[in-house]
Every structure is written in C-alpha cells, then in structure tokens.
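Contributing new records

If you add data, match the layout below exactly. Sequence lines come first and carry their own label; structure lines follow with theirs. Keep one chain per record. Anything else will be rejected by the validation script.
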Amino acid sequence: MRATELAEAVRSGERSATEVLDEYLERIEKRNAELNAFVHLDEDRARARAAAIDETVAAGQDPGPLAGVPVALKDNMCRAGEPTTCGSRILGDWRPPFDATVTSRLSAAGAVIVGKTNMDEFAMGSSTENSAYGPTRNPHDISRVPGGSSGGSAASVAADLVPLALGSDTGGSIRQPAAFCGVVGVKPTYGAVSRYGLVAFASSLDQIGPLAANVADSALCLDVIAGHDPLDSTSVPDHFVPVSPAVDAGVEGMRIGFVSQLGSGSDGVGGIDPEIDAAAKRAATALEEAGATVGEASIPASVYGLSAYYLIAPAEASSNLARYDGVRYGARVDAKTTAEMMVATRTAGFGDEVKRRIMLGTYALSAGYYDAYYDKAQRVRTLMAREFASAYESFDVLISPTAPTAAFKLGERTADPMTMYVNDVCTIPANLTGDPAMSVPFGNNSAGLPIGVQVIAPALGEFDMFRVAGAIEEALR
C-alpha cells in the first residue's frame, strides 16, 4: 500500500499504526538477512511510537500527514540514542545525543522510524559494497548491487520493507540506487532540506532526500522534511512550495530538454548503455505526447563533471573526516604517543575507499597543487552552473538517463575505482550546480533490471520537476 494511503487509513482509524508496523517488521525479519538493507532496528521505540499514534487517533486528533507510516533512515542521519555509524568501524557504536532536523520533522508528521539502513562508508561509493557491515543486495536480483551510497534505503523500499526511506545524495547517492532498484529517488535543491544532524561527507554537495515506491509518496515525504532550518547555515530561507499538488498537474505547455551530453551521442560523457539511452528518449516522447514541447539541450561542461567532482568532494571529505582522530568520539586504538594513536585509529577505522578519497583530497588541497587542481575544479563547477542556467532560459526542466548502466554484479567493479566512479556521471552535474534532480523508474532492460530516468530542474524548481516526474510515471500505466 502507498504511504499516502497508509497514512490516510491510520488517520481515519481504518487501520492502526501498531498493525501496520507489525506487518512491516515481519517483512524485515523475513528478508533482511538476505538483503542486508538494515544495520539497526529499534523495534521497542517503534512500537511505543506506533502505540502513541493510535492513542492520538483514538482521542480524535490528527497525528500528521505521515501518520503511522514506517520510515527508515540512512545510517548517517542522527537519531538520539540510536547507533549512527555511517557504515564505518571508526564510529563503532556511537549514539548521538540529538536528532537530525529531518528526524524531528518525520516524527512531528506522525511517521514511525524503524531503524537505520546500510550504506557505503561515509557515503563514499556507488554500490553499497564499501560498508563495514557487508554489502547490501538488490531485491530484483540478489547477485547484483543496489547502487550506492544509499543502497540500503533504496533496497528497503524496493523490497517493501518500508514504504519510505531517507537517503543522502552527494554525487548521485539517492538517484543512482533508486534507478538500480526501480524506485523513486529525490535530491532536492541544495539547502531546501536541512543538513543539521547529517554526518558530513562533502558539505557543499550533500543533500538529504526521500526514496519511495512512487512519485506521490516521495512528494509527500519531501513536503514534510523540506523548509528553512535556523540550525543549518546553508538552509534556504525561501518558503518551500509544496510539491504534492504537482504530481497530477500534467505537463501541458511545458518546455523539456533532453541533455545531449548525458546521452549516447558522440559529444557525450560516454559509457551510456544504448538500452538506457533509448528508455530516456522514450520517456521524452511520452512527455511530448502528454502535451510538452521537447527539444535537445546542450551543456558542454557536463562532460567535465566527473573530473571536477572527484577533486572537490574528496577535498571536502579530507577536511570533514579529520575530526575522526581517536580523541573526541568513536573508535580508538591505543598507542605510545598521540600521533601514533591517531594513525593507528584512522588506519584501523577507515576502509580502503575512504582512505583513497582522503589522500586524494589532501593532495588536491596541498601547497603547489591547490591552484592546479582544486581551484580549476571549482572554476568548472561555476562554468557548469552558468551553462545549466542558460539551458533553463529555453527549457523549464531537463531530462537524461539516471545511470549509465543497470545494476551490475556484486564484486564486478570493486577492483577498479575509476569504473565504479563512472556510475555517477549523469547525476554529478546536479550536485555541482545545487539544482534539484530525481530518478523515476521507466521500465526494465532486456535482462529485466530496472531503468531510471532523471529529471533536473532549476534551483527551487521542485514543483515543475514533480509535474514531469508524475507524467513519466503515468506514461507507464
């Protein structure tokens, strides 16, 4: 059942929140050992929360728009008293003393938070194989990855272990696993959803967003978690326009551009599977049939997005992860001197991919290389933002494939970091520009694996983005 339908059933008294929770906990018990989507369940607190919601309904009060809906959090979002490990040994069993803003807003809306989902360590990865707690498997084919880094959240929704989950997106970590798992994944405008209580990877790129089985559920969840937060200095002060009304608004009269560089053409980023490209173009045709005007959008700088991202993101990670030193919190490996203790702690606590990115970022920021690498990457970022802004003068919304391929086999790309990084080639541009983007399922490839189509809009253009997403979803019915 849809999250929107579940919430309405609980609010009306047709179903109890406790009954709904029991059903989902039973599903988790049956499938989680196989999928490894959840790394922590808090059944006692979830049951207490569901009981409180039932009492609210019985008293004739409204628990909120997500009344009784079970929701999962990616394990880099704080919830007071609950382990928050970021998929890393270095955080061990760290339990934050406070809630992230998104956690508080979900609870205020009546949601029942059931636990934390698996992820690539510190959100660094595209397959959820970098977790200290083992890989997550794709519910459509357990021999394949669910994507990353929010693979646990995407898999939990795809397997119907929860109706909604939150993920974080730094270079595609919500949208790419959404495409691999056949669910909807939304990266809002940078600053539209508070990052307070999100453990940082790359602070100028990170953004929290929902994963859901359908567009309407993702819209409802975004409406709950979005909005200004004084606790986050990067939070957008503008009022967030609710997107739920956009889902069924249609695309009549809209101008939609297919980003040529993110397709399989000769001027593109390369590596786009022809089946994926064809699906995105079929989606464009469907939008045209629904009343939109569709054309080709050219954003030449997007081909440099991958290179720029893998300088900017590791540089910010190098700075953000310096705090994990064995002194303040998390794991600690004792040694004779403080310096030796810090080295031992970080050596034992971080996985290979995190170490790789810390070293890359430290190098890019070092004296003599800052101008040659980091500064140039930021210039590319600015150029890309200008080109996207120029494209929006001709188009209301842009579309492209979400990922260059469908889900690949577990272990297939772990030995070659560059091959793994290419998975985010279509999603990275929206992180660099800060624009909202989302992945919508659009059929399967010849092997029966899900395909996602990406919808990108200008900053704070979520309403139009959801109009297009709703029309793409409708085209498959």
